[in-house]
Fold Putative pterin-4-alpha-carbinolamine dehydratase.
Amino acid sequence: MRALFSSRSKHDYLDDALTLLPGWIREGEQIRRTLAIDDSQHAALTERVKVVADALHLRPEISRRADQTRIRVGHGNAPLTEGEVLLAARIEDAYRAVTQP
């Protein structure tokens, strides 16, 4: 996977990654996602994300407002990394897992 990213420009892989991550919006050097989930799903999602984020040594911002969970990945003052894009993909996996019956 590293060869894929190193052989292409950063802009290309970020654009490609965002097309594969529906619902994620790029804001400068960060990406964000808002999910309409209930409190128990939020708790389950947060736990799953914590495990993955710890393994990747990353710290996404996760907040809860009304019936929405907001997630932000990236630092804003540094370019997005492969790990941050991977974390967003794993968050999508966790979201599907906690919302499927």
Observations:
- Residues 1-5 have pLDDT under 50 and may be disordered.
- The CA atoms of residues 50 and 59 lie 8 Å apart.
- Helices lie at 2-6, 10-20, 39-56, 82-99.
